[in-house]
C-alpha cells in the first residue's frame, strides 16, 4: 500500500494498531524506512502493544507515541501539525 511513498516520509497512524504492526514488519523485512513514525492508534485490542513495539524498535527511527489505549486520528494529525509548525518557526 505504501510502496514508493514510505522512504523518508513521516508516517502517522492514529486508528489501526494492525497498520502500525504491519509498518514495523515491513521495515524489519528490509522495506523502505520512514523518517519518523507517529504511532497513536486507539483501541482496546493491540493498541498499547503496537505502541510498545514502536517504542522498542531497533531500527533507530524517531517515533512519537501516547502510551496506553488512548489515541486516534485527531491526535495523530495534531502531532503531525505540531511537527510541521515547529519546522516553520
Present the secondary structure layout.
Layout: E1 10-13, H1 17-28, E2 36-39, H2 47-55, E3 63-65, H3 73-88
Parallel strand pairs: 1-2, 2-3
Give a verbal description of the structure:
It is a single chain. The protein has one domain: 3-Layer(aba) Sandwich (Rossmann fold), CATH 3.40.50. Helices cover 42% and strands 12% of the residues. The chain has three helices and three strands, in the order βαβαβα. It has helices at residues 17-28, 47-55, 73-88, and strands spanning 10-13, 36-39, 63-65. α1 packs parallel to α2. The chain is globular. The termini are far apart.
Number of domains: 1
Shape: globular
Q: Please identify which CATH superfamily we are dealing with.
A: Cobalamin biosynthesis CobH/CbiC, precorrin-8X methylmutase
The total of helices stands at 3
Give the ordered list of helices and strands: EHEHEH
Task: Characterize this entry briefly.
With 89 residues, the chain is an alpha/beta fold. It has three helices and three strands; from the N terminus they run βαβαβα.
Could you name the key traits of this structure?
alpha/beta; single chain; Rossmann fold; three-stranded parallel β-sheet; 3 helices; 89 residues
Amino acid at each position: 500500500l505504501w510502496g514508493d511513498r514510505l522512504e523518508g516520509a513521516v508516517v502517522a497512524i492514529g486508528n489501526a494498531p494492525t497498520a502500525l504492526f504491519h509498518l514495523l514488519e515491513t521495515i524489519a523485512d528490509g522495506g523502505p524506512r520512514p523518517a519518523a513514525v507517529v504511532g497513536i492508534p486507539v483501541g482496546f485490542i493491540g493498541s498499547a502493544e503496537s505502541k510498545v513495539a514502536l517504542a522498542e524498535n531497533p531500527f533507530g527511527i524517531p517515533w512519537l507515541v501516547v502510551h496506553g489505549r488512548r489515541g486516534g486520528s485527531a491526535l495523530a494529525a495534531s502531532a503531525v501539525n505540531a511537527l510541521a509548525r515547529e519546522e516553520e518557526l
